[in-house]
Design brief:
- The complex is a heterodimer.
- In chain A, 30% of the residues lie in helices and 29% in strands.
- By secondary structure, chain A is an alpha+beta fold.
- In chain A, the strands form 2 sheets. In chain A, strands 1-2-5-4-3-12 form a 6-stranded antiparallel barrel.
- In chain A, a hairpin with a 7-residue loop joins β1 and β2 (120-123).
- Chain A is globular, with a radius of gyration of 21 Å.
- In chain A, 33% of the residues are buried.
- By secondary structure, chain B is mainly alpha-helical.
- The chains are: A alpha+beta, B mainly alpha.
């Protein structure tokens, strides 16, 4: 018993201070990931039953609305192509490198970590699909989280709303920079240490600033819903509602920096983002 | 007829407990219900240890802890420590615990689970900034309430598959 207790304690110390145990964790995640799929079986069945028994009218309605959506999005995409070309040209003129992210991989949520204190999900793509720790994850409407652990066929994603997560952001309107920290509530992020003079207003769209190198630039993070000067503390209290459907979405996109990063297994010195202090999961929460 | 003496039954029930401990709640259940989730693996392990102390040992419990760590995304080693502690106590007193009534067993289990919950919370507080709150005691309460049912079901299983 004493030996087990001592070895557990040693493991805990090693695990919390170094990264030596990351491969072990990855292997363990591979071993246990079938259990997540088994635990999802009731939901898979009920979804299947809904699909089978949904009426023809509902399906037709859904098809019509999807067709509308495709038309809308292809209109946007046309503009995007020309804008991308223009952006490349302008960047060439300025002599700076292209900043648009390369590739995305669609992943489906397997399950949500069953712990009220953590905001983490398991997705059905792992190292066999080229996913690596630290990759940003987005959904249809905004930044979703980042990959923190990779097994062979599944990986664990930390959401931006987790109490230990923080992401560097900026106001889309005027590029004022801030750090959006998770609060442990799905519908609320908080900007940390915003000076009362900062030009951040209610309704502003916060986008990822790309500082720190972990998240690509320009993905919507959320909209400011509360911006109040707290004169006693000398800071502005700013609350942001995340754009991504953190507690509802079923499909997410894993963002690859470039196409070469997506080699399964990956080169040993793959362009993994440097370790930004501000986006590390272990950032202590709000020291206001 | 029964060469493994029902070892696979023990493993299967433990795996089932692990599945229950990660099963997602349906969307219509309010999120606070997540706090009520009992410590399924502890319940199952506790039963097997006091009924068949020669089949389930501390090493097995400790190894199971690693799988639980990976499942629940917790620091490596924390569940091993918790499960080995529970197994050690249950194993040391298994003869007495077997004589106890179901209510007395549930009381012992309550104390064990609450102790383990606070052990876990104190380890978590080393790395995370989560406060130690009274909500930690809730799984202990639900585990205690469920103990008679879990013990009854597992006793049925062990007799049906002739675990020795």
């Amino acid at each position: 018993m004493l030996a087990l207790a001592i070895s557990s304690t040693l493991l805990l110390i090693v695990g919390s201070t170094t990264r030596f145990l990351d491969p072990v964790r990855g292997a363990l995640l591979t071993v246990v990931s079938p259990l997540y799929f088994v635990a999802e079986i009731p939901y898979v069945f009920s979804a299947f039953a809904t699909d089978v028994f949904s009426s023809r009218d509902t399906l037709l309605e859904e098809k019509a609305s999807l067709a509308d959506r495709v038309l809308e999005l292809s209109a946007v995409a046309q503009r995007y192509d020309s804008l991308q070309a223009e952006n490349e040209r302008l960047r060439e003129l300025l002599g700076s490198t292209s900043r648009l992210p390369g590739d995305v991989l669609v992943a489906e949520l397997v399950t949500v970590i069953a712990n009220n204190q953590r905001h983490e999900v398991i997705i059905d793509k792992g190292s066999s699909d080229g996913v690596a720790v630290g990759q940003p994850v987005i959904d249809a409407s905004g930044l979703f989280g980042q990959v923190v652990e990779v097994g062979a066929f599944t990986s664990r994603v930390l959401l931006i709303s987790d109490g230990t997560h923080a992401v560097p952001v900026q106001v889309n309107r005027n590029d004022v920079r801030a750090i959006a920290a998770g609060t442990g509530a799905f519908a609320r992020l908080e900007l940390e240490n915003v000076p009362v003079t900062a030009d951040i207003r209610e309704g502003d769209l916060m986008v990822s600033s790309g500082l720190g190198g972990r998240f690509p630039r320009g993905y919507p993070v959320g909209r400011v819903v509360v911006a109040i000067n707290d004169n006693a503390a000398g800071v502005k209290r700013v609350e942001v509602r995340p754009s991504a459907a953190l507690d509802r979405t079923r499909h997410v996109l894993i963002v690859f920096e470039s196409v070469s990063q997506r080699d399964p297994g990956g080169p040993p010195n793959s362009p993994e983002p440097s370790e930004p202090v501000s986006t590390e999961p272990s950032v202590p929460e709000g020291n206001t | 007829m029964n060469p493994t003496r029902g070892g696979w039954v023990i493993l299967l029930t433990i795996v089932f407990g692990m599945i229950l401990s990660v099963a997602r709640l349906p969307d219509f259940v309010p999120s606070w219900a997540g706090w009520l989730r009992p410590q399924w693996v502890v319940l199952v392990l506790f039963f097997w240890v006091i009924e068949f102390p020669d089949r389930v040992g501390m090493i097995l419990a400790w190894c199971l802890g690693f799988l639980l760590d990976a499942l629940n995304a917790e620091p490596l080693g924390i569940n091993g420590l918790c499960l080995a502690t529970i197994t050690f106590i249950a194993w040391s007193f298994h003869e007495r615990l077997r004589m106890y009534s179901i209510v007395q067993q549930a009381t012992v289990l309550f104390v064990l689970v609450i102790g383990v919950q606070y052990l876990r919370a104190s380890v978590h507080s080393l790395t995370l900034d989560t406060p130690v709150s009274l909500a930690l005691a809730v799984p202990a309460v639900t585990s205690t309430i469920l103990w008679p049912f879990v013990a009854g079901a597992l006793r049925g299983v062990s007799q049906r598959f002739r675990v020795r």
